[in-house]
Specification:
Mean pLDDT of chain A: 83
Number of domains of chain B: 3
CATH architecture of the largest domain in chain B: Orthogonal Bundle
Largest sheet of chain B: 5 strands, antiparallel
Strand order of the largest sheet of chain B: 3-2-6-5-4
Structural class of chain A: alpha/beta
Oligomer: heterodimer
Strand content of chain A: 15-25%
Number of helices of chain B: 14
Largest sheet of chain A: 7 strands, mixed
Shape of chain B: elongated
Shape of chain A: globular
CATH topology of the largest domain in chain B: Arp2/3 complex 21 kDa subunit ARPC3
CATH class of the largest domain in chain B: Mainly Alpha
Low-confidence stretches of chain A: 1-15, 19-26, 285-290
Mean pLDDT of chain B: 89
Distance between the termini of chain B: 62 Å
CATH architecture of the largest domain in chain A: 3-Layer(aba) Sandwich
């Protein structure tokens, strides 16, 4: 595979291993999640789970299963053992990189995750099975489904007969279904339009493996299944929970989705349950107390000291660097800096706090912190000064950490109205995305609809502009020489260092427009 | 399939169906009730791409010649002539179908069913006419009888076999989607009732030998079962069930049992009646299946249209409404939850909507709507609504009146968006 090929694959199907966040010296390596896609599918099957997990501080690993990512004909020669061997190999490759490694699979990927947990005696983390098709008995399965063992016996038919995808494509939401249908009609390579009958035979064999060995799964397991799954009924989920045992396995039943639960109406419920089950670093006061902090008292004290040091300088951008990508800052009141600022909004908040109009606020007069699990409460005073006014607001900061990373900060001032008066009324336009941000979001969506893969240089330009616009200057260590693709991407991003966010967004939008125009001309 | 494979398959199926047709011939007179072979050729032509027509016709010609040779060995000229007639009649059928609907046919619209009937008639008449002409030229039999037997047997066969070929040629195995299990079960029950009742009626039992008009009257209930099969299974199931049922009726009648054979006022009457019955059953099933498919197509189009509309207004964060001033009914489309905290389905009247308007502005807004109802030119309103949590959202509401031919107000339609 050339760099161009690999980069193209990474761009369309997701890199097999998402770059881990930089690990500070002495800090524990982050937890990992190994995600496995479904039959005929790609990482698209898993919706935004990669991103959600990454934003919660996990490193995600995935693979393109044998016979996938090319053409359906390539599935003819693939066996269930090939799939199992592939996931076992990947599992062994990444297992020791993390203190905890969770497994997660969607559809056939769930069967593979279960088979992997059985075979490897997985005890290094948890197991999530999304819509596992232990039984092919959903309400929309065709009437001739039980005839397939007879068809398997017909010489030559297994290899030649095509089994096609049709509406509802596993999606209940009609808007999303229309998008998926359009993707199929455009011939986008996110999911095979058909699979050979032989492939279903291999899935049947895999089902038998899972059914036989389900009781050998010993790790805590979450099964997520839609009541209206058109491919496989709740019987599958019940079977697994029963075999694994109610003490270890639990089930979440979704009420407003079909089979593709990670992209359908209940995708938020799926993501929330998975993150909670993994004990993920989730912002939110209620979940903070539920999370296992995975930090010693000393670690927590050191973390508080780092936060205090940043806040003492009024360096809110540095606070971001201490946290997970979805770090949230909750600033109360009805003023121009108030609100719950999470993820990218936290960047905008940091910028606003640094602005002269805000009086360059910083915290001072820190009192003795009070600790409780991953939480610390620090008495302090917010001070700011600008021409014509000064602020001195006493209160307390509540910070929450998980595995050494900051999840959330909440500021509780004694007198909110004083802050409202100083910072001034909210800017009505501040809450929503700017015109340029909207254009950027549109361009990001459009970049995924290109029919012709861009060239190597263009892919790197797209990547670097996107990263600069969305994450700022390059962070982390340069990948080693053997990892050529990751190194090329890192270098491209590094070349953009110092480029303002707006400029990067404009560059990205222009490049996507250019690619789209050429794409249309070629078509 | 490659061309040689097509030729071989068509020839083999042709010969098999010709043999089966022979088995269904009248026991007493040896008259052929139904001819299944040429209709298979016609069906294949109606679904095959044009590039495959030559292979299909070649296979049919070989099949016809071989079959002729088998029943009348040694007469090469007869075999060749017969093959030519079969090819000509199939070509006539497919070209006649093209005058009514474009081919390949799908049998998912009544127009397609009409095209199939026209094709069947053309194939039968051309085959009958040329066959009768051949008989006249060779002085090998009664010309008129040859024409009628040939024509009717081909017509019935075409209505039974061609739909099976046309509908099943489009069959593709699916992982999910298509016919659901409950519908399949309902169709299976109806199919069993249809075939079972025909067997009871036409088989060598007491039911089939009922005298008077009782026997023929009992042939109506199976048509009801056929209709249920067509509604649940669609054209594919209906065509196959009709063929199976027709074979039961034709075979038993040919062997002297069943309600039509019980009373025969002239020779061949039972044969004619069962041919007509089989045709009616087949056409009933095809028509119902086509109408049902057409309805599903229209439903899908309406759903796609609605999906596009909802996507468009959703992307612009708009809410559209249609208000009937006469009844007060208000139909809203779009996501109203961010505006008023309840879904559009929870707002059925103007009063429901006004209940969400900020109390201080409610009277003014109600007055403005009343002015609209009176034909006033209040096209754009600005007011605030309250969410469940008490926060207010400022809105702009643009509306236009829909009037009938004499200017009377019919409806007010509007678009609401956050200001």
């Amino acid at each position: 595979m050339t760099i161009a090929d690999a980069t193209a694959v990474a761009a369309t199907t997701g890199a097999s291993t998402e770059a881990a966040p930089p690990v500070a010296e002495g800090r524990q390596a982050p937890d990992g999640v190994f995600l496995i896609h479904g039959l005929g599918g790609t990482q698209y099957d898993l919706g935004s789970m990669h991103k959600r997990l990454k934003n919660a501080g996990f490193v995600t690993h995935s693979l393109t299963l044998p016979g996938h990512g090319t053409t359906p004909e390539d599935l003819v020669r693939v066996t269930a053992e090939d799939w199992i061997d592939a996931v076992v190999a990947k599992y062994r490759e990444v297992r020791d990189l993390h203190p905890t490694l969770h497994l997660m699979g969607m559809c056939m990927g769930a069967l593979l995750a279960a088979a992997l947990a059985q075979r490897e005696g997985h005890a290094k983390g948890r197991l999530v099975l999304l819509a596992p098709p232990v039984y092919i008995d959903g309400w929309a399965t065709p009437w001739y489904r039980d005839l397939r063992p007879l068809l398997y016996a017909v010489p030559g038919l297994r290899q030649r007969m095509k089994v096609e995808e049709e509406e509802p494509y596993g999606i209940k939401n009609e808007q999303l279904r229309a998008i998926v249908k359009a993707k199929f009609e455009r011939g986008e390579n996110f999911h095979y339009r058909w699979v050979p009958l032989e492939c279903l035979r291999q899935v049947d064999r895999l089902r038998a493996v899972v059914m036989k060995g389900a009781s050998k799964i010993t790790c805590p397991t979450l099964v997520v299944h839609a009541r209206e799954d058109e491919l496989t009924s709740l019987r599958s989920a019940n079977f697994l929970v029963e075999k694994i045992g109610g003490g270890r396995a639990r089930m979440v039943v979704l009420e407003d989705s079909y089979h593709m639960i990670c992209v359908d109406n209940d995708r938020e419920i799926v993501a929330r349950n998975v993150l909670e089950f993994f004990g993920a670093a989730m912002p939110g006061a209620t979940s903070i107390l539920a999370n296992e902090p995975k930090m010693s008292a000393e670690d927590l004290r050191a973390a508080v000291a780092s936060l205090v040091e940043c806040l003492g300088r009024g360096d809110f951008e540095a606070v971001r660097a201490l946290g997970i990508p979805d770090l949230a800052w909750v600033q109360p009141g009805t003023n121009r800096v108030a609100g719950a600022h999470a993820g990218k909004s936290m960047g905008a908040f940091a910028g606003r706090m640094a602005h002269a109009d805000s009086g360059a606020p910083r915290f001072t007069a820190f009192g003795t912190p009070a600790f409780n699990r991953g939480i610390a409460l620090v008495p302090t005073t917010l001070v700011a000064r600008r021409e014509g006014g000064a602020l001195e607001s006493q209160g307390a900061l509540l910070g929450a950490w998980h595995a050494g990373r900051l999840l959330e900060v909440r500021w509780f001032p004694d007198d909110v109205e004083r802050e409202d008066a100083f910072f001034g009324p909210p800017d009505p336009a501040a809450g929503g995305p700017s015109g340029l941000e909207q254009e950027f979001e549109t361009a990001t969506a459009e970049s995924r609809t290109l029919k012709h893969a861009p060239g190597n240089d263009e892919l790197l330009a797209l990547y670097s502009l996107y990263k600069q616009a969305s994450a700022g200057d390059v962070v982390g260590e340069r990948p080693g020489a053997l990892d050529m693709i990751a190194r090329a991407k890192f270098d491209a991003w590094a070349k953009r260092k110092g480029t303002p966010r707006d400029e990067a967004m404009r560059g990205y939008v222009a490049l996507v427009k250019d690619l789209k125009a050429r794409d249309t001309a070629k078509a | 399939m490659t061309a040689p494979v097509v030729v071989a398959v068509v020839a083999a199926v042709y010969i098999a169906l010709a043999m089966l047709s022979g088995a269904l011939a009248q026991e007493a007179t040896d008259a052929w009730s139904v001819w299944l072979a040429t209709p298979f050729t016609l069906g294949a032509l109606l679904v095959a791409p044009r590039a495959r027509w030559l292979a299909v016709l070649g296979g049919a010609a070989i099949g016809a010649a071989v079959f002729s040779w088998l029943i009348d060995p040694g007469r090469i000229a007869w075999a060749s002539g017969y093959a030519v007639i079969e090819v000509l009649s199939a070509i006539a059928g497919v070209f006649a179908a093209r005058t009514v609907a474009p081919v390949p046919l799908a049998l998912e619209r009544p127009r397609d069913v009409a095209a199939l009937v026209v094709a069947a008639l053309a194939m039968a008449i051309v085959g009958g006419a040329v066959g009768a002409g051949w008989t006249a030229a060779t002085h090998s039999g009664p010309v008129a009888a040859t024409f009628w037997v040939w024509t009717i047997a081909n017509l019935v066969g075409a209505l039974l076999v061609a739909p099976v070929v046309v509908t099943w040629a489009r069959f593709r195995a699916k992982r999910s989607g298509g016919l659901t299990m409950p519908l399949f079960a309902a169709g299976a029950i109806a199919c069993l009732l249809f075939l079972g009742s025909l067997q009871l009626l036409f088989g060598p039992q007491a039911f089939g030998k009922a005298g008077g008009t009782v026997g023929p009257t009992l042939t109506y209930p199976p048509i009801l079962f056929m209709a249920i099969v067509a509604l649940t299974w669609g054209g594919r199931g209906a065509s196959l069930t009709a063929l199976a049922g027709a074979l039961i009726a034709l075979f038993n009648t040919a062997h002297g049992s069943g309600p039509f054979a019980a009373v025969e006022s002239f020779a061949g009457e039972a044969n004619l009646e069962v041919q007509g019955y089989a045709s009616v059953v087949a056409l009933t099933g095809l028509l119902i299946a086509a109408l049902s498919a057409r309805e599903r197509t229209l439903w899908r189009e309406a759903r796609d249209w609605r999906t596009r509309f909802e996507a468009a207004i959703g992307a612009h964060r708009l809410v559209a409404y249609e208000w009937d001033p006469a009844s007060g009914a208000l139909a809203m489309t779009g996501d109203t939850v961010p505006l008023v905290g309840v879904p559009a389905s929870g707002i059925a009247t103007l009063a429901d909507w006004l209940a969400h308007v900020a109390p201080a502005e409610r009277d003014a807004t109600q007055t403005a709507f009343a002015l609209r109802a009176d034909g006033g030119a209040v096209t754009t309103l600005a007011y605030s609504v309250q969410r469940g949590d008490g926060t207010a959202v400022a809105l702009t509401d643009e509306a236009q009146a829909i009037r009938d031919h004499d200017g009377t107000l019919h409806r007010i339609t509007g678009i609401v968006r956050a200001a």
